[in-house]
Structure formats: structure tokens, C-alpha cells
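Teaching soon. Invent one.


***
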Amino acid sequence: MNQIILWGILVIPWFLLLLLDKQRVKRFFTVGLFAALMMTIAYQVAEKMHWWTVQENVFFLTSMGATIYCLHIVITIFVFYLTYPGFILYIIVNIILDLIHGYVIVPFLAKIGLYNLYDISHFGLFLVMTTVAIILYLFQRLLDFIFEESPA
């Protein structure tokens, strides 16, 4: 059953992007990929600091959760699609999602044996995720500045 959940996490969210305007998805795709990079770094730090571990995964991933390569990208695109450029709305939505992630999703994943927290609290995880969200917002602003300033 866990493998079905993991493969669902890895594949199904991509289809949700088909519901959105293609041009706007393209605009936010780069920040989605940057989110995957940021979460890959977070997972590497977590492994070294013993914050959390991935207990079960799809066969080709080791210490990286399947959520990085799909769910984080797609959710990032959705959040930017629905909230950008308004920072206040963006941060409120991210805080809500990060609280759900830290206090609902992670305990569920731990309960079914996919993921365990060790030397970081749920609140610490929330802070990591919120920090990443702020970095992502600044990255998107930088992209907008670069592409607005470049000649056509």
C-alpha cells in the first residue's frame, strides 16, 4: 500500500497542472524547480543533522522523499499561480500549508512508516518550510526583475 501512495505522490499531482493556464504555469515552473532544489538541500541537511529520515521510498530514490520531485514542485506552482505577486496572501497561504504539512501530513506519513522526525520538532519543520517559502518568493521576484529588464 505504501508504494501505491508513494507513486501516487510522485505522478498524480502533475496532472493537476493541466487545469491551469499554460502561460502562467510556465511563468512559475522555474520557481517550482527551485523549490525542488531547496528541498533537496533541506533533505541533505536533515540527514546530516538527523532531523528526519525517509523510511520507505520508491525504488530509485534513497534519502530524498518522493514529494520533492512532484508534490513540492506542483504545490509551489499552484501557490504562486493563486497568490503572486501579493506577498501577504502568499505568506498566509504558505503558513497554513506548512502547518498542515508539519502537524498533519508528517504525522500521517510517520504513522504509515514512510517518514520519521527525530531531532527536529514539528514546529522546527514548520520554520524550515516557511523559510524555504520566503526564499522562493524572493527568487521569483528576482526572476521577474531579470526578465522585465532584459531586452526582447
About this structure: The chain has one domain: 2-149. The two ends are 51 Å apart (CA to CA). The beta strands are 52-54, 115-117. The chain has a mean pLDDT of 89.
